[in-house]
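User: Structure tokens for both sequences below?

Assistant:
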Amino acid sequence: MRAFRKSTHLSRQLLATSGLRYSSTAAQTTKSLTSVLIANRGEIALRVGRTAAEYGIRTTTLYTDPDARSQHAVSSPYAINLGDPSAYLDGDRIIQIAKEQGCQGIHPGYGFIDLNPVEREPSLRKKMYRSRADLHRPTMAGNRVYGKQEELTRDSESKDIMTKAGVPCIPGYHGTEQDPEYLKTEAAKIGYPVLLKAVKGGGGKGMRIVNTEHEFFDQLASAKSEARNSFGDEVMLVEKYITTPRHIEVQVFADKHGNCVALGERDCSIQRRHQKILEESPAPHLKEDIRQDIWEKARQAALAVGYEGAGTVEFIFDNDTGEFFFMEMNTRLQVEHPVTEMVTGEDLVRWQLIVAEGGRLPLTQEQIEQRIAERGHAIEARIYAENPDMNFIPDSGLLLHLRTPTPTPTVRIDSGFIAGDEVSSHYDPMISKLIVQGPTRDAAIQKLKSALEEYEVAGPITNIEFIKRMCVSSDFVAGDVETGYIQKHHAELFTPQPPAPEVYAQAALGLGLQEISSAHGNPFSGPPVTAIGFGSGTNFQQRDFNLVGTPADGKGEPTTTLVTLRQTAPAQFDITVSGKTYENVTSTFSPTTNTLTSFFPHTRLNTTFICYSDRLTLFQSGRQYRLQLAMPEWTKKALGVKEMKNSVLAPMPCKVLRVEVHEGEEVKMGQALVVIESMKMETVIRSPVDGVVKRVVHGKGDLCKAGTELVEFEEKEEL
């Protein structure tokens, strides 16, 4: 039984009378859309819903069990629970729900149905097309020839059609023969280096660069394995690999009346793991004649197949020669479409609605070019929950604190989360998209940097600090970009930036004021911190804190800094950080904003201070700092923490809140094993040694007596 949810407030908003979505050049030829199902989640579901609401279109959204409390689940008047986390990929069921809800169309957003290897087959497209269900509904001819959407033979066909249409294609093999020896022979004909790419791939998976024939078979096996596990299909194509490539794509739109326009290009060259991080428009240092040519080739690509709707024609641009080659066409709006919206001033979801209703495109090519000339430069940064220092591995968890830049006409945030939401491990870890616009590229970069300094996320690790470093990377500022930029500039982008002494001082002040506030019955928000060794707030005189800055990449020894905090008067302290003393520092904390304001002898500091268990997150002077509060030895003894060779025990009667490890996992000394709760206080139990987890004895929700075994492990022999 599907759960059914209704939001009366948004229902009234959606049913309110709105302005026309048609310009004078967009005469309506079919019945207007009044109801749409949004077959996606997160920020794109919210973004599509906003445009629909503006034009009085009723929306139905979908959510799964992990997304039951998500923003998109409560954003529209009707929301249907799909249940299983993977149900967003069930195209047949989504079409059935759309019919049951009386929806005239389905907006797929991006990803899921578009990228699902099962639902790429023509059957789903035909079902959606015949029922007028797919709002971006590209024509069947267009969908037939773009090989990424269907079978391998169609990919070869698409290249042939593009070549006949005058669109340059990168040299490569796109045939059906998949014998490894045959593929190696084709690679030799093309010339190394070559790119191996899964035909049904996406998101950078199933791709390998082969530099010499000696590594061909190993890389092929690796690419096939990844493709098979990710897409259920290991068919590969082989293409010439451009050694200094840029990823440049063109946003095209076509209607049923034969009109087709290019809404400018986007440079998406800053990538990790073949996935985009920064996108911008116009592309820097692109000669005007090449820009006009690449726009025209994109239009030719769409016209060659009778395309209709929103599409993105992707090209590989060779920095060395200035040549560009057709790569593929994505038959949908892309994640980065707001960049184009910023430089044209147009709502592309509105354009999709117009085309779906049979209208003409709102602007001509000449009008679009005039808009782009007037509106300067736009850049989008994808804000991900991920750890750049550990090869950008995804992170997840509760958003303990979230503060975004102030939106303006030139600063836009497309987000799917608010503070208190959880970034799920089931889905893509993108938290939001930050898009800025400026009169020039330099102005846009400066605006992006300033906006990022206002962006605060506590909980999961994010890539915000990394993007800040990108904004000051000299070659990026100069516009000298390529898809291998991050690897090429690794030393510059990943240089450690240790906290200043004032950061440690503010951390100690925050902890001290927290204790004093708690003693007077006004605790800070969030669970009280343990393992500090503080006594009663009425006796507060001097406290020592050992604050640890753990290397994000897990390499090297954690750095521990001793901070001594001595109260000399109400709200006044002397603070010593590694031997350096700041005298007569006055400090106050605002719980409503989590802001710690301190007056040091030489400056005033405003710091956002977030404390959760033994982890501290501080935002100060435009940077984020993550610290850990070390447990003093005498406090360990007071808590009764026992270190046995093969076990970690509960130090007190407690309830297990979370288990942070799994059986068979290798752990390091100090790594979190279990989070327990006792007397409404949380304590993180950490591993006393390096070892391998043999058994997790107690799970989430279990009640344990003091001395109960929590985790059993075997010490590594090399210790």
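Moving on to the next sequence.
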Amino acid sequence: MQISANRLTATMQSVLQKAGCEENEARIVTEHLVAANLKGHDSHGVGMLPHYVEFIRKGIMHPNTPVRLLRDSGAVLQFTGDRGFGQRTGKEAMQAAIERVKTTGVCLMTLSSTCHLGRIGTYGEMAADAGLVSIHFVNVNDLDPIVAPWCGSEARFGTNPICIAFPPTEHNAAFVLDFATSVVALGKTRVAYLAGKTFDEEVMLDCNGVSTNDPKVMWEGEKQGALKPIAKHKGGGLILAAEMLAGLLSGGGTIQPENTRQGAIVNNMTTIVIDPTSMVSMAWLQKEYDAMLDYVRSSTAPDSTQPILIAGEPEMLSQVQRRADGIYLSDQEWQKIVEAGISLGMNPAEFALIA
């Protein structure tokens, strides 16, 4: 089914308010989720809502919880999310870091113990829109691991995303590189599973360590399978680096089993925000940025149907298309959202109006 972004936004905000979120928080979370769908990242979009409702019901996710400052050491800011909505706490922590950079030139910011941050590229975009550079490392704890180490068969990590963002120029959009350190995000396996699809490549391991392209190994059976890390041994090192940078520097901890697991998606994030004008002029940076992107694009693409795209451009193209055509949700994913709303006391007619 295709749903317009505006109609989807209004309904999802109603679900969140029924779940206990105040209006402003519901708006922040909804805008983040719908933006993820618009930009082609359905894994981090409105399909997460049923999980959030369940986390709130279990008392392991806390609505209406702002970010809390633990330490302010000038260029170093340490926050905790206290299990609040990550879309809110992440935004608030990034706003503080962006403001701090105005006086310090660089800011190391950590955010610990916040529920699902959502699409990490959102925070890179915040920095880029402010004319800043940002680097983000994220780990996941509070739930069982889902990504196997390189050469391993049992999971030992979350998907541990990394994001790097550079500001836009008059001629080029922002560079926003945002990727999970697993071959696919868990949410993408959820979307494929609910749609009854398989992947083109064997991006997962079943519970016996056998490679597979069938997402049901992540969602069916007593023993869950595992996602593969990206880039073989290099990805195996990168996923562990993200685990340590996010889990250790934030104080939120890693996914190792001595730390408590209550079953929510809890993230820690270590972020570096840089004002590039503290080192080079913005005019020179923009000129060099444009020249480098032109140079990259000048390489001949063997397949004309697969042009060279800069990080961030696929999201822009998706957003244009989905604003025009609507956001696609599988019937199964939509049904889970409807069931979550009904469980909160919403009238089924509220969903029928936009389906």
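User: Anything stand out in the second?

Assistant: Residues 67-182+232-276 form a domain with the Ribosomal Protein S8; Chain: A, domain 1 fold (CATH 3.30.1370.60).
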